[in-house]
C-alpha cells in the first residue's frame, strides 16, 4: 500500500511540475529574419549557430536543416563556447558588457 501511495504522489508531483515549468522551445509562429547555413551532412559534432537577432536562441543543424532552439530562461547563447551561458559571459548583448570586456577578448584573438 505504501508503494502505491508513493507512486501516486510521485505521479501527481510530475504532473504539477510539467504544468508549471515552461517548455524550452521556440513557438512555431516565431519570426526568423536570419537563415543559417547548415552543412548538408552531419559532422562528428553538432553544428550550433548563434541567432544574431535574438541572444536567447540559437540554431542546431541536422542534415542541412536548422532548428531554432531556446536557452533556459535568463541565459544567452555563447557563440564562442557553443553553450547557453550567463549574459555577462556570452558576449552577445552589449548591454551586459558595460566595461567592453568582450571587445577586448575579440581584439586579443585577432592579433
Helix and strand layout, with pairings?
Elements: H1 2-20, E1 48-50, E2 57-62, E3 65-70, E4 76-78, E5 83-85, H2 87-90, H3 101-110
Antiparallel strand pairs: 1-2, 2-3, 4-5
Provide the residue-averaged pLDDT. Answer: 79
Largest sheet at a glance? 3 strands, antiparallel
Please identify which CATH superfamily of the domain at 30-85 we are dealing with. Chitin binding domain
Identify the strand order in the major beta sheet.
1-2-3
Overall form: globular
Structural class: alpha+beta
Name the CATH architecture of the domain at 30-85: Beta Complex
In whole angstroms, the N-to-C terminal distance is 69 Å
Order of helix and strand elements from N to C terminus: HEEEEEHH
Strand content: 15-25%
Unreliable residue stretches: 16-25
Q: Write down how many β-strands occur, each being a DSSP E stretch of 2 or more residues.
A: 5
Please tell me how large the radius of gyration is. 19 Å
CATH classification, class level of the domain at 30-85: Mainly Beta
Number of helices: 3
Pfam families: CBM_14
Organism: Nasonia vitripennis
Protein name: Chitin-binding type-2 domain-containing protein
GO molecular function: chitin binding
Amino acid at each position: 500500500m505504501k508503494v502505491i501511495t508513493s507512486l501516486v504522489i510521485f505521479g501527481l508531483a510530475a504532473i504539477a511540475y510539467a504544468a508549471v515549468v515552461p517548455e524550452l522551445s521556440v513557438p512555431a509562429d516565431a519570426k526568423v529574419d536570419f537563415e543559417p547555413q547548415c552543412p548538408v551532412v552531419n559532422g562528428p559534432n553538432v553544428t550550433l549557430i548563434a541567432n544574431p537577432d535574438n541572444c536567447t536562441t540559437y540554431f542546431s543543424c541536422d542534415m542541412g536543416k536548422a532548428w531554432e532552439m531556446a536557452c533556459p530562461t535568463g541565459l544567452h547563447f555563447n557563440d564562442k563556447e557553443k553553450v547557453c551561458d550567463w549574459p555577462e559571459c556570452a558576449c552577445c548583448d552589449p548591454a551586459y558588457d558595460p566595461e567592453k570586456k568582450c571587445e577586448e577578448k575579440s581584439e586579443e584573438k585577432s592579433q
